[in-house]
Design a protein that fits this description.
The structure holds two protein chains of two kinds.
Chain A (H helix, E strand, L loop, with lengths): L1 E8 L2 E8 L4 H8 L18 E4 L2 E4 L12 E3 L4 H8 L11 H8 L9 H14 L5 H8 L9 H16 L4
Parallel strand pairs in A: 1-5
Antiparallel strand pairs in A: 1-2, 3-4, 3-5
Helix pairs in contact in A: 3-6
Chain B lengths: L11 H5 L4 H7 L1 H9 L17 H4 E3 L5 E3 L10 H13 L6 E3 L3 E2 L5 E3 L1 E3 L14 H28 L7 E3 L2 E4 L2 E4 H7 L39 H6 L14 E5 L16 E5 L10 E5 L2 E6 L2 H10 L1 E4 L11 H10 L5 E7 L2 H7 L2 E9 L11 E6 L4 E5 L4 H12 L6 E6 L13 H13 L3 E4 L2 H6 L7 E9 L5 E10 L7 H5 L28 E7 L17 H18 L4 H8 L5 H12 L17 E10 L5 E11 L5 E11 L6 H20 L28 E6 L15 H16 L5 E2 L3 H8 L7
Helix pairs in contact in B: 5-6, 12-13, 16-17, 16-20, 19-20
Classes of the chains: A alpha+beta, B alpha+beta.
């Protein structure tokens, strides 16, 4: 049965109508029209659908929408504002999170379909581990699959973003 | 920053102000946006299929002096549109930033937010292939742009009263005699046309009227970032998965989890369908045409549930060999005379040369069936009406899909509008070629409403058109000095299946598949022996014996072939007691020096030390090795060096570092080529170590990422890429080459590490442990 729910996404509270067991992904895509989280497997195996739930990476394809009530969801589209908040610079928020900028600088994506989850997972990693080693990055990212072969460039981009963030975005 | 608008808050006004980037591509779909970006151009049935030799078919000058390039080529994650635009900008003397790709959507700041090729607007430059795009279509783009430049200069000469020889162009502004005029104004004054016919219709760099390569300011001079990446990392990009149409229903097809044998009842024949089994799911219904079965409804998750819960009894035809028995099955078919053989090359007297050789070496190699398996399962959105159809999809062949779709729907071709949007990279003709678009259109036709068909993971994994499994028998003779004097390769495989599954399921009868071929481009045609005593034989396992759908997969047949042919060269080098680079160089035809050079480029970029394979075995459980190989798909050349580590106890292979050189002639945007090479190397690691389609007697059983594992982040190799720039040569393909030799280089490095050859791909831990324990390959 469809229910009326309020969910907080990227700082805004949205009213949506969905059955309680509907995976969050379908609400984000079909009701809120967010294109960052993407359907990859529906099985929590690939990570294309990842979002941050109170700052921790989750798989929106298997998370019932009812389970996120009262919590803050951040999608790829919300990373710039998240970064601005972390720096206490809400007014002059940058167009992109340092991870997104690094993804452009390093020219990471090929088709780009999986990269949402890669950046979301990396944001989770860098929120707890400011200067990760290569092993820490590989371990943190291991649950995210890419078919185009971008893993080496993702590694480079995360290191670059970590360095930028350590300097407060300079 | 980008606005995040709920659909209800979204208004036309906010779109026009450029604040609704996330949702516009989906909510309004691309057609309206394309029309807006090019106010004067309205796609229609009469603009379908423009003449392929007219400049105006290729290029469209907008009032703001930006220029659209309108080929039927697409973005498949290779970044080739950026390359096409560079070629056009170079010849036209405009800034790269003035070029627009196809019918793509750009925001008010000129940033790309959706890549679009519109079948009602694109000139037919054929299907898109990663190794043919710049090589062949690039020539057409160059001819169109060079001819356009001539036309525009001629128009400017008349308008300014200045001879052409006294005119100069910068940023699309023609100047001379103290006056200037823009391309846009010239075209406006010429009835909206550039005018002119391309003759010839293709130009290599510097040829004919095209700009001399020495004068290039863009193509070889700048390393341009891809224009699709900013929107892809911000979430603003519109993939085909994001398209929404008013009144659109969601659909899932209903097929067994994993396809059964092609052209048998077991493929996907529903014996009974119990519609009551989904009666409790609101607003969802079953649609069916013969064996083609789907469910549709307004809510996507309801439709997913319905597809999952609909009770269907499927026919079984248990005649497939199963993945563990496929090679003995091939051998059994061959022994029964059920693999018709064709001699595809035969030079000299091979038997006599074998008889006279100092040493004769032979070996057999098996390479598993592998899948396209994009991270995003295929998706298409179709709106089929009585007299016309619009289909959003990511086919690699817009022109052919248009004519096929017209047949399927019973419409004239110009009433079918294919609007290409990017999907998830598939690396060849899996579903997205035809099946997903045709399936969506068939459902839309049945329900008389716009339909979005999205596959589930098990659909994508279990129903694509797989890259064929190959069995390859190699045999060669050596003289006493390490020269190949005789060479024979026999390949057993299965032919491609032509018709998309949806068409089979609605009852169309496909023609007989053609004969399978050998992959001659990787069977050493560059070695001297190919001109002396050389034979290749193709054997085809005929279609009725339990195959599934098969099609082209990145560098078609390349990985399967080099896993045999270039491992075999390594074996010959070992027999000759030579370093494998020295062996290849000695046996290389003089005129094929670019092959030797490209492998040398990879070696020079690496710490590789010349040695006879497996002559320096390490001690302990974890040992390292180095391997070399060359190979390609298409006209380019690639050489790779692999550095691996093997744990002899667990059998696990880890690729530490791959080094690749690539000679693709004149390299357009070398930075982009390096990125493609990098992706190829990582994907090769995945294919040769992990990927193997599983199937039993009834159907494919690889239906997710557990049953079809691919390379993970922890095991990704480091990569070093070297583009061998040859500005005196024509550009050749760059989307596929180093994938091919990397497969064999890794296998050779494993041998170098453990001193035991692995004859079967993928090289799994179990196979390594088995080989170390003395198991012999069972084929």
């Amino acid at each position: 049965m469809a229910s009326k729910l309020k969910i907080k996404v990227n700082g805004l509270v949205h009213s949506v109508t969905a059955s309680l067991d509907t995976p969050l992904l379908y609400v984000l895509h079909n009701e809120l029209h967010l294109h960052g989280p993407r359907f990859g497997c529906g099985l929590a195996q690939c990570g294309a659908c990842s979002v941050l739930l109170d700052g921790k990476e989750i798989r929106s394809c298997v998370t019932p929408v009812a389970a996120v009530s009262g919590k803050a969801i951040t999608t790829l589209e919300g990373l710039p504002a998240l970064w601005a908040k972390e720096r206490g610079a809400a007014a002059s928020s940058p167009a992109l999170h340092p991870l997104q900028q690094a993804w452009i600088d390093v020219q990471v994506p090929h088709c780009g379909y999986c990269q949402n989850g890669m950046m979301i997972q990396a944001a989770d990693l860098l929120s707890t581990t400011k200067n990760p080693t290569e092993d820490q990055i590989r371990t943190a990212m291991n649950g995210h699959l890419c078919r185009c072969g971008t893993y080496p460039r993702i590694l480079t981009a995360i290191k670059q973003a970590a360095a930028v963030m350590a300097k407060g975005g300079k | 920053m980008t606005g995040f608008l709920h659909e209800k808050e979204f208004s036309r006004k906010s779109f026009l102000k450029g604040t609704g980037g996330v949702v516009v591509g989906a909510s309004l779909a691309s057609a309206g946006l394309a029309a807006k970006a090019n106010a004067a151009f309205v796609p229609s049935p009469s603009t379908y299929n423009p003449p392929t030799n007219a400049v105006d078919s290729f290029l469209y000058v907008n009032p703001d002096n930006t220029i659209n390039l309108l080929t039927s080529q697409v973005e498949i994650g290779n970044g080739t549109p950026t390359g096409f635009l560079m070629i056009a900008a170079e010849e036209l003397d405009v800034d790269f930033g003035q070029m627009r790709y196809g019918s793509s959507v750009y925001d008010k700041d000129g940033a790309l937010i959706a890549t679009i090729t519109d079948g009602w607007r694109a000139v037919n430059t054929g299907g898109h292939g990663g190794s043919q795009a710049i090589q062949s279509v690039g020539q057409q783009v160059r001819a169109a742009a060079a001819t356009a430049k001539q036309q525009l200069l001629s128009l400017a000469s008349k308008q300014l009263g200045v001879p052409v020889s006294s005119l100069s162009v910068s940023k699309g502004v023609v100047s001379g005699g103290g006056k200037s005029v823009t391309y846009a104004d010239l075209v406006a004054a010429n009835g909206g046309k550039i005018g002119g016919t391309m003759s010839p219709t293709s130009l290599q760099p510097g040829a004919g009227i095209s700009k001399p390569v020495a004068n290039y300011a863009i193509v070889t001079k700048v390393r341009l970032p891809r224009e699709d990446i900013p929107a892809k990392v911000s979430g603003r990009y519109t993939y085909v998965h994001n398209i929404r149409l008013p009144g659109m229903l969601h659909a899932r097809w209903v097929r067994p989890r994993g396809q059964g044998p092609w052209l048998t009842d077991g493929f996907a024949t529903p014996l009974s369908v119990d519609e009551r089994s989904i009666a409790h799911i609101p607003n969802v219904r079953v649609v069916r045409r013969n064996n083609f079965l789907a469910v549709v409804g307004p809510k996507e998750y309801d439709v997913i549930q319905a597809a999952e819960q609909l009770k269907v009894k499927w026919a079984d035809t248990p005649i497939m060999p199963g993945h563990d028995n496929v090679w003995s099955y091939y051998r059994a078919m061959d022994a029964k005379g059920l693999t018709p053989a064709r001699i595809t090359a035969n030079t000299g007297d091979v038997e006599k040369a074998f008889a006279g050789a100092a040493k004769v070496v032979s070996a057999s190699f098996a390479y598993a069936f592998q899948g396209h398996t994009p991270i995003g399962p295929a998706c298409a959105v179709a709106d089929v009406r009585a007299d016309r159809a619009t289909v959003y999809c990511n086919t690699q062949n817009v022109p052919n899909l248009t004519t096929e779709m017209a047949q399927v729907l019973g419409l004239p071709a110009n009433m079918v509008r294919i609007i290409w949007h990017e999907g998830s990279s598939t690396f060849g003709n899996g579903y997205h070629a035809f099946d997903i678009a045709e399936s969506a259109a068939l459902i839309s036709q049945l329900v008389k409403a716009p339909v979005r068909l999205q596959l589930m993971r098990w659909d994508e994994q279990g129903w694509t058109r797989y890259g064929q499994g190959y069995l390859t028998d190699m045999k060669a003779g050596l003289d006493s000095k390490g020269n190949m004097v005789a060479y024979q390769a026999t390949q057993i495989n299965q032919p491609s299946t032509s018709l998309a599954a949806a068409r089979v399921l609605i009852g169309e009868v496909p023609g007989t598949p053609g004969a399978a071929g050998t992959n001659g481009e990787n069977l050493g045609p560059f070695y001297k022996v190919s001109a002396t005593n050389y034979r290749t034989i193709a054997k085809t396992v005929t279609q009725q014996l339990g195959m599934f759908q098969q099609g082209t997969l990145r560098a078609p047949s390349g990985p399967q072939t080099v896993f045999a042919s270039e491992q075999f060269i390594d074996m010959l080098a070992k027999e000759a007691n030579m370093d494998p680079f020295t062996f290849r160089a000695q046996n290389m035809k003089d005129e094929e020096w670019r092959w030797t050079a490209v492998l040398k480029a990879a070696i020079d970029a690496s710490p590789y030390k010349p040695h006879v394979p497996a002559s320096q075995l390490g001690t302990g459980d974890v040992v390292e090795g180095w391997g070399l190989a060359i190979g390609t798909h298409g006209a380019s050349r690639a050489g790779t060096v692999a550095h691996v580590e093997v744990n002899k106890k667990t059998g696990k292979v880890r690729v530490i570092h791959l080094y690749a050189g690539q000679d693709s002639g004149l390299a357009v945007n070398p930075g982009l080529i390096e990125n493609q090479m990098s992706g190829n190397l990582v994907q090769a690691t995945s294919k040769v170590l992990h990927e193997e389609l599983r199937f039993d007697k009834k159907r494919v059983t690889s239906t997710d990422w557990i049953s079809y594992p691919i390379l993970r982040f922890k095991d990704a190799p480091a990569v070093t890429t070297v583009v061998v720039q040859r500005t005196d040569q024509n550009p050749t393909g760059s989307g596929e080459p180093p994938l091919v030799p990397a497969i064999a280089a890794i296998a050779n490095a494993v041998y170098d590490a453990i001193g035991v050859r692995i004859f079967q791909a993928p090289i799994t831990p179990a196979r390594v442990r088995g080989a170390l324990a003395g198991d012999k390959p069972g084929f």
